[in-house]
From TrEMBL:
This is EGF-like calcium-binding domain-containing protein. One of its GO terms (biological process) is protein transport. Belongs to the VSR (BP-80) family. It comes from Lupinus luteus. It is a single-pass type I membrane protein.
């Protein structure tokens, strides 16, 4: 919602009925009333602004602090007419003191101040997993607030467990406890409301110390719920916490006097969790010692960064930012969906009752290929994004708005890479080349952009081929046919006829061919003669060597000792 801010000259805290009307005129922005914090309940300020015709109310903080949650007053403490709280329909927002002062300064200078209220951007959305907390209480006798909390847990359980099991979210429950001042540790009030010697306390459920359950019963059950989550989380099933809390609220209510340890044990056993581990985690609630679980809960109450302290029950923290909205399944689920990084939200966030699919109208203004049913429009919880898709492991590249082009080695497998293709007379041609990472090029025999069209080239008419004197050219789709007269053969690579035509046409071509054949013949004969001569010489030398072992040859000199007498003969 976009509106123009107005800061009233009187009744600046908004605690009284506004005399003037803040109803916007046709064609103008809605009116956002800026009021100061203090002097009355937040709800009364919003009610007065709504009755004055304002479309929204901004409450400027009166102190420098992390922003708190604007809570409604306790039942019976709002005004003489408490039912007005349920009739408030305009959005409200608490803004920091610094922002309030800046708006007031701009308005005092005569400037127009327009504000865009978009709660979806109020929550961080850094990645594909959302971390969130529910600060709750096991007390079921605190009036409408407790009833709303129990109803929320029951209605939200299914969605919470689905998101947790699929790994989309990481949930953790938390519990607020107080400590008893040391001077009052031995008092009746502290003993009935606290455990571990006054370290961890909760208010009496009925606000009556003489009847019903005590505050310490609530603290112990809070501790059991926290320990149940710890054991379930360690076993890899943290979503069982939702089952335990809902089952306990049904089976062990205070009004039926079943808010006991025995009833809790029965619920834990029915869910199959290790009861001994839960009891070991709870420990001795009468010991004068710290409990690690509850001590950690008290430390976690202190605000960190922009979160602020946890002071109101229930409180939801999403991605370390306090959720400011209605405690209902639809509202909280929308807040969780807004906390995912764009395009990473689960399918539950994209159902028609959760958001509007902007890709259904005019394809969201993104690129699309209607013939292949491919689009760059991706629906997200915050709106559509134009992003070139990945189809069958083929990545499309481009701006996503006017152009997306298939890239990579497999691109021709998806809609022919976005390139032209055609078939005619049993022949098929494509302008997509698999070994090219991108681009389209008309195949040989065609010309065009390669994307929308490739037109056949008439090689005969344009005299691009089959131009020899005895050639007859006939154009075909994507190619041509060339025939030679007189039974000659057409050599396409040289665009010439060979055979009889070559002999009659001139001696240049045929003379070269016959000269080449003659050279081959002469070379073959010479090689054979040389080979025969070498074999003859080799055989002759071998024979001579063998015979020389038995008799002298004519051309071999006699041994100088051949005719010498042998001694001893």
């Amino acid at each position: 919602m976009i509106g123009s801010v107005v800061y009233p000259r009187v009744n600046q805290n908004g605690c009284k009925t506004f005399d003037g009307s803040f109803t916007s005129k046709p064609g103008s922005f809605p009116t956002f009333v800026l009021v100061d914090r203090g002097d009355c309940f937040f709800t009364l300020k919003a009610w007065n602004a709504q009755n004055g015709g304002a479309a929204a109310i901004l409450v400027a903080d009166d102190r420098v602090e992390p922003l708190i949650t604007m809570d409604s007053p306790e039942e019976g403490n709002g005004s003489n007419n408490d039912d007005y709280v349920e009739k408030i329909s305009i959005p409200s927002a608490l803004i920091s003191m610094a922002l309030g002062d800046s708006i007031k300064m701009a308005l005092s200078n005569g400037d127009m101040v327009n504000v865009n209220l978009d709660w979806r951007e109020a929550l961080p959305h850094p990645d594909d997993r959302v971390e969130y907390e529910l600060w709750t209480n096991s007390n079921d006798e605190c009036g409408p607030k407790c009833e709303n909390l129990i109803n929320f847990v029951k209605s939200f359980k299914g969605a919470a467990q689905l998101l947790e099991q699929k790994g989309f979210t990481q949930f953790a429950p938390h519990y607020i406890t107080w400590y008893c001042p040391e001077a009052f540790i031995l008092s009746k009030q502290c003993k009935s409301q606290c455990i571990n010697n006054g370290r961890y306390c909760a208010p009496d459920p009925e606000q009556d110390f003489s009847r019903g359950y005590d505050g310490k019963d609530v603290v112990i059950q809070n501790l059991r719920q926290a320990c149940f989550f710890k054991v379930a989380n360690e076993s890899g099933k943290p979503w069982q916490w939702w089952d335990y809390v809902t089952d306990f609220s049904i089976r062990c209510p205070m009004r039926e006097n079943k808010f006991t340890e025995e009833c809790s044990d029965q619920v834990i056993k029915s869910l199959g969790l290790d009861l001994k581990k839960v009891k070991d985690c709870v420990g001795d609630t009468h010991a004068n010692a710290e409990n690690p679980i509850l001590k950690g809960e008290q430390d976690a109450q202190i605000g960190k960064g922009n979160r602020g302290d946890i002071t109101i029950l229930p409180t939801i923290v999403i991605n370390n930012r306090q959720y400011r909205g209605k405690l209902s399944r639809a509202a909280v689920l929308k807040a969780l969906c807004a906390s995912f990084q764009e395009t990473t939200e689960p399918s539950i966030c994209l159902t028609p009752d959760m958001e509007t699919n902007e890709c259904l109208q005019n394809n969201g203004g993104c690129w699309q290929d209607t013939s292949a049913n491919i689009t760059a429009c991706r629906d997200t919880f915050r709106g559509r994004v134009c992003e070139c898709p990945i189809v069958q492991n083929v990545k499309f590249a481009g701006d996503g708005y006017t152009h997306c082009e298939a890239t990579g080695a497999l691109r021709c497998a998806v809609n022919n890479g976005g390139c032209w293709k055609g078939a005619q007379g049993g022949r098929a041609y494509s302008a997509c080349i698999d070994d090219h990472t991108k681009g389209c090029k008309c195949p040989p025999g065609f010309r065009g952009d390669g994307v929308h069209s490739c037109e056949d080239i008439d090689e005969c008419k344009e005299k691009l081929a089959c131009q020899c004197p005895e050639c007859k050219c006939k154009n075909t789709w994507g190619s041509y046919e060339c025939k030679c007269n007189g039974g000659l053969y057409y050599a396409r690579e040289n665009d010439m006829c060979i055979g009889k035509y070559s002999a009659s046409a001139g001696s240049g071509g045929s003379g070269f061919v016959w000269m080449f054949v003659l050279i081959l013949a002469v070379a073959g004969a010479a090689g054979f003669a040389f080979y025969k001569y070498r074999i003859q010489r080799y055989m002759d030398s071998e024979i001579r060597a063998i015979m020389a072992q038995y008799m002298p040859l004519d051309n071999q000199p006699e041994d100088s000792n051949h005719n010498q007498p042998h001694h001893g003969v």
